[in-house]
Amino acid sequence: MSMTTTYAVTGMTCGHCEGSVRTEVSRLPGVERIDVSAATGRLTVTSRLPIADTAVVAAVDEAGYRAVRAR
Ligand SMILES: [Cu+2]
Question: How far, in Å, is the centroid of ligand 1 from the Cα of 19?
Answer without folding.
Answer: 8
